[in-house]
Amino acid sequence: MSGPTKGYYKDLTRISRALAISSDVAMGTLGGDLKRKEMISARLGDALSFLYMASAVLKKYEDDGRQQSDLDYVHYAVQHCTYNAAKALQEAYTNFPNKAAGRLLKVLVFPLGNHFKKPEDKLSVKLAESLMTPGAHRDRLTHLCYISDKEDDPIGLMERAFIKMYEIKGLERKLVQAAKEGKVARKGLLTDRLQQALEAGVFTQAEVDKILAADAIRSKAVQVDHFSHDFSEVLTDKQSAPKLNSVA
Distance (Å, rounded) from C-alpha 45 to C-alpha 88? Predict the structure, then answer.
């Protein structure tokens, strides 16, 4: 295996061997008590689970043709899995009923401690920005998600709102810049600020309409279901003027 994921295969092989040795020692020292030592067996099971997930990530990366846009996701997932798999083994050794066996495993498997590192924050930020950018890479990761075109489908509504808001990011930056230059009020209703921007020549009428349309679907997407006082009527999509209660 070659390429940027080559080292991960070596890491998984090393942890797999460590898990095999750890399981043999656990069975040899604990015997049938291993089943009753559920926290020890659970940690060994955690290590196996993380190995399985890391292997699945690498397989999908290969099956999809080593897409460059997926590489950051691969780095994050495998680093997360290898770190936690090694951590689970270390915790198992620390809590081994047979302390001598636990110390021996620590020396054999992790003589210098857990050198596997968790994903860095900058990688997490990079992934978040990638997921908030429409494109083929995002579609490939979400192709199994059910998204309906029906107006009342909440998932479809969220997706449409996401796309609309992404499309006006450039216009939002123009509005912020206009506010800094004093052409538009920094605070106030969106409609009032857009009218100011229109009069100042910051936006065209088409751009204002685009922002208002995006804001309308955004507002609808963040609404929660609400009902009449006696729960007999759904009021989620109904507009009503606020009423003041008389306290006289």
Answer: 9
Q: What is the pLDDT of residue 115?
A: 86
Q: In whole angstroms, give the CA distance from residue 197 to residue 178.
A: 8
User: Are 89 and 43 spatial neighbours (Cβ–Cβ below 8 Å)?
Assistant: yes
Task: Report the range of poorest mean pLDDT among 41-55, 143-157, 198-212.
Answer: 143-157
Say if residue 33's pLDDT is above 50: yes
Report how far Cα 14 is from the mean position of its chain's Cα atoms: 28
